Amino acid sequence: MVALSLKISIGNVVKTMQFEPSTMVYDACRIIRERVPEAQMGQPSDFGLFLSDEDPKKGIWLEAGKALDYYMLRNGDTMEYKKKQRPLKIRMLDGTVKTVMVDDSKTVTDILMTICARIGITNHDEYSLVREMMEEKKEEITGTLKKDKTLLRDEKKMEKLKQKLHTDDELNWLDHGRTLREQGIDDNETLLLRRKFFYSDQNVDSRDPVQLNLLYVQARDDILNGSHPVSFDKACEFAGFQCQIQFGSHNEQKHKPGFLDLKDFLPKEYIKQKGERKIFMAHKNCGNMSEIEAKVRYVKLARSLKTYGVSFFLVKEKMKGKNKLVPRLLGITKECVMRVDEKTKEVIQEWNLTNIKRWAASPKSFTLDFGDYQDGYYSVQTTEGEQIAQLIAGYIDIILKKKKSKDHFGLEGDEESTMLEDSVSPKKSTVLQQQFNRVGKVEHGSVALPAIMRSGAGGPENFQVGTMPQAQQQITSGQMHRGHMPPLTSAQQALTGTINSSMQAVHAAQATLDDFETLPPLGQDAASKAWRKNKMDESKHEIHSQVDAITASTASVVNLTAGDPADTDYTAVGCAVTTISSNLTEMSKGVKLLAALMEDEGGNGRQLLQAAKNLASAVSDLLKTAQPASVEPRQNLLQAAGSVGQTSGELLQQIGESDTDPRFQDMLMQLAKAVASAAAALVLKAKNVAQKTEDSALQTQVIAAATQCALSTSQLVACTKVVAPTISSPVCQEQLIEAGKLVAKSAEGCVEASQAATNDDQLLKQVGVAATAVTQALNDLLQHIKQHATGGQPIGRYDQATDTILNVTENIFSSMGDAGEMVRQARILAQATSDLVNAIKADAEGETDLENSRKLLSAAKMLADATAKMVEAAKGAAAHPDSEEQQQRLREAAEGLRIATNAAAQNAIKKKLVHKLEHTAKQAAASATQTIAAAQHAAASNKNPAAQQQLVQSCKVVVDQIPMLVQGVRGSQSQPDSPSAQLALIAASQNFLQPGGKMVAAAKATVPTIMDQASAMQLSQCAKNLAAALAELRTAAQKAQETCGPLEIDSALSMVQSLEQDLQEAKAAARDGKLKPLPGETVRAPGGRWVCGEALCTLGQHLASLPGIAARDVAQALRSLSQAARGVAANTSDPQVQSAMLECAGDVMDKAGNLIEEARKGVGKPGDLESQQRLAQVAKAVSQALNRCVNCLPGQRDVDAAIRTVSEASKKLLAESLPPSTKSFQEAQSQLNQAAAGLNQSANELVQASRGTPQDLAKSSGKFGQDFNEFLEAGMEMAGQSPNKEAQAQVVSNLKSISMSSSKLLLAAKALSADPAAPNLKNQLAAAAR
């Protein structure tokens, strides 16, 4: 799908961003916040995307639940990312104005819920907003019908009548179905809140003072302006209550005639009747009535009016029997629609709302259909038809809503019932169940009926009477907890979903750990043994890295959930949980394979499976306690985390990978407990401060800080238990250091709180001393961790001095151009080498063996000479700081000193660099394993299949490289003095860099397309860690290469000799019938021939400049060829083919060994002609041996037979005369056509078979040879039909050409089958087939 390019405006910043058209608006907003720093403000829920328009009314807010393509956006459209909240001024009927923040994207219905909730009104659906309009605007709206004077006069009469009657149509109600923006309401406009529907107002009393006040004001205004016609006596009674409300109890001295402004207390028609005395009498009758009670009485009296709760509209209806329209009032209430006399407001006719079948509104009329309740329609002329329809629809909606809620038995009747909320699936659905708390008494009764006894045929019989046991009662009571918990936030719901899915994955993994993996039958030759060993090493490495990740993520969960739940980063917790479950799932597969291999080797695989089960069980317990809704104490989580650490250590012991010294782990735990003890002392001192503090607020702060300090130290101890078995992992070290930082922060908080709470120097000094003890204990712990991280104990006797020399020479190399810095570093270097020389001399003096003493003194002298040269070069650089030549001399002297140091310190530098490479390679392999696991877990939530496929492909390449890297590390560790093992590690590291880098790039590109935030964060972190590990691996491999480079030719020769020995063992196993194919081995040979040929060319080209690299490449290519040859032999049942294949492959190894030996001899004399000739002869012998080896492959011999068949058949074309034809021309032509079609079909099959199995190639090449014979016979027959020599010659020439093409096709098919990876062979094959 083509991406959508949109311009996103955020304040004054405009960013162009790409989105998938199917992206939800919610996700688009999330992506904008993640990628644009300016958008990271406020709460995400308060912001949205706004599509603006030239007309402000047409601008729309995009709904979060809809996709971008729903709005038909085009490339280049501008969207505003801004706050949805806007201020809205609301005027109450009593004149007060309130400003409420509302959501601009919501409709008026939703906004009313917000407004009413702020004011304190529960039944928001009975209120609405009125837009107060100026008189000029009213004239614009109402004065549009000016066609003639008569019509204008008629309209003016209706307007005057409306104003006199105060009908509802003069109120400009807002449309509930549209937003404020769509109705043109700007930020400065004030809206009137008014009751529109009088449905539940009967229930409003003194318990709801807010609504009571609104009802009172609205009723008072309607009585005074004449909307509710009342008698003079009633008007005075209302005015008396109004006086009580406004002035309090009646006061004879104050409340006298002339005190009141009658126009504020009586309708205008009664002002001149001098009713002030009567009003004061009514006021006096109120006695000491409170304001609230007076309002209740006023509203109660107003409800008794016949016009109360009626919304009136002035309409015109047809006069009965005449073609004339007369004014009429149409009233709408919660129960009925009524026709009312416009003069007296007497009800003429009523229709219940339940009798209305349907209604219709047009711009100039309104029609009611009563169905069977009345014949004909009732239709009136009005311009307010839409308002009338909305009012009727509103009442009906309220009636239906109330009826529906009453049908749901118990919600209104049982106010104390408990609601149990069960979250079924986060963000999808929630089940609500009502628990009734009704209490009743047990009723006793009998279900037995009285007996009826009748005599039978045999007369009366005996019967017995028994009694039932007494009824037993039992009362069970309990308490609901879950109903009182606060609702989960969206982030907590997302974490709940992640934990639930992770627990399912953990249980599924645990269930698979009952049985071993099924191993294929394996032989006892060197390759089979090597496969077992390598597979065990790879499995152990993968399990170790996965356990590292599990323990590190467990510690991360402990650290992240330490503080206030409101401040917890639940996405990061979800990422840690996802990492735990995905690694446990992958670990279970490796454990099953390793357990099977251990059983095969005579070990105890069952114990390994049980250890893995224990770890899975511990992880399951941890996930249960990590639930956001969990009410378990924090201590349970820490215990569960400690259990994960313990079971992890047991699992690593089972696989023999517990590479951390137990004494180191014990010391680590002791140091962590020492921190806890120091923190406990600090807490006691802080509590002493709290006891002496009089200010309760400050006292609370000190106690809170002390409590936090205690919690953080218990957390540190728990983290130490978790990561102790895997402390060699950098991520585990990071988590423990993070826990230490939290302790340091909490200790600092204790000190600050104590300083703020007291001025007592003695107490503060005690707190300070205790805090210093905490800091010291923490430093001891961190130093212990750092010691392990840097490699623990020194490698050799002179480790510190060689370390300094190594680092300082690096600084000199990087400071080229800065003479001052180079000289400064040279001084440090001179001091370090001087210390090393003195140490070597001291060893020489203490040496009893004179030969060793002489060697040490010789090394010390060589080192001293190199130091002297370096000092001279440094003086020259200091004297001439601008001289590049002097700086170069200093660099060369430092390099010479480095070489001398390496030789003098018994290869200490080389060992250091190799050790560093082993460490970085191990971390790179572990990081790659983590990244692959994260990529697999993220696949389910990736919305971009193309990006996911690219990531999967890059992961597959890395999966093939990880075993080589692991084998390189294991080989170097098991043979620390073997140059071959060290070079193999360097080669594996260098080969790992490129595919690893591609996987990092693919992972980073995939992260934005992953919907699940936890999975995206996990993949992002893994890719970041892998990128850092690759950078360190590149540097370490380069430095190790510089040190170990000269040994590459010897290493390559050693490897080739080892390969030749392995092939001899395979040949012996084949002879005894014990050669078994390894898992994954097939009869197809990889491109060993072409790789070897390429390597041979490389060896010739780079003999003078890079012989070591060329020899290494040849050795690696020969290893591939050796593996392929063994695979072919193991998958072939023919003993002759097995023997020939292994014999030829062994011959290749022998000749290749001679080649590398000659190359080594020729290194010192690149221009020697005799040496080059010998090298060329040996290379030719290797090439011939390679060809013989390839010809032994199944299928190759059959192709050779087909080539011979074609060659033999083609000899017939060399005869001087053709035999005469015995068939007719038509028969010969038909036969030739059939033969040509058969040959063409065979050629196509041959092309396909060259990419298939050797068996397919053998079958298709044999068929091709037969079809070629038939085609040649038919061609000769056709040539015999030709009447003259020229025509015959032309046919024979074409047949010769086809013969040559057939031979080329067979040769190309043979070459491609032997070496599918060789370049251009596919093109050659296609050309030959054409």
From TrEMBL:
Transmembrane segments: none annotated. Keywords: Coiled coil, Cytoplasm, Cytoskeleton. One of its GO terms (cellular component) is focal adhesion. One of its GO terms (molecular function) is structural constituent of cytoskeleton. One of its GO terms (biological process) is actin cytoskeleton organization. It is found in: Cytoplasm, Cytoskeleton. Residues 1023-1076 form a coiled coil. InterPro entries: Alpha-catenin/vinculin-like_sf (IPR036723), Band_41_domain (IPR019749), FERM/acyl-CoA-bd_prot_sf (IPR014352), FERM_2 (IPR035963), FERM_central (IPR019748), FERM_CS (IPR019747), FERM_domain (IPR000299), FERM_f0 (IPR032425). Residues 86-403 form the FERM domain. This is FERM domain-containing protein. It comes from Gopherus evgoodei (Goodes thornscrub tortoise). The lineage of its organism: Eukaryota, Metazoa, Chordata, Craniata, Vertebrata.
